[in-house]
Amino acid sequence: FLIKQWYQRRVRAASEDVVMEAQDESMKRFTVELEFVQCLANPEYLNYLAQHNYFKEEEIANYLKYLLYWKDPKYAKFIKYPQCLQLLELLQEPRFRNELVNVP
Questions:
Q1: In this predicted model, what pLDDT tens digit does every residue of 47-92 receive, in sequence order?
Q2: What letter would DSSP give residue 53?
Q3: What is the DSSP string of 14-81?
Q4: Model-level pTM?
Q5: What is the Cα–Cα distance from 85 to 89, expressed in whole angstroms?
């Protein structure tokens, strides 16, 4: 009986640890994505990404598309630089991304 109780407590504690780790990972991801989206409001950062050919990568285009969820009001309320959402929208267009490479 005591072994069963000990085992159940260990299983419960382990599952709580997994939940807490998942929550920590979700918070880290939220923070990283929020910071990246807000960096899009910085023209120098956009120029850096363009000059280093990041916008030519399909993975980046897909990531930018994924980040559109920040336009949802339940996420947008965390954004300090709302102009980043407009730039995120513009970055969905390949032509806009290509034109950024031509900016000195």
A1: 999 999 999 999 999 999 999 999 999 999 999 999 999 999 999 9
A2: T
A3: HHHHHHHHHHHHHHHHHHHHHHHHHHTT-HHHHHHHHHTTGGG-HHHHHHHHHGGGGGSHHHHTT-S-
A4: 0.76
A5: 6
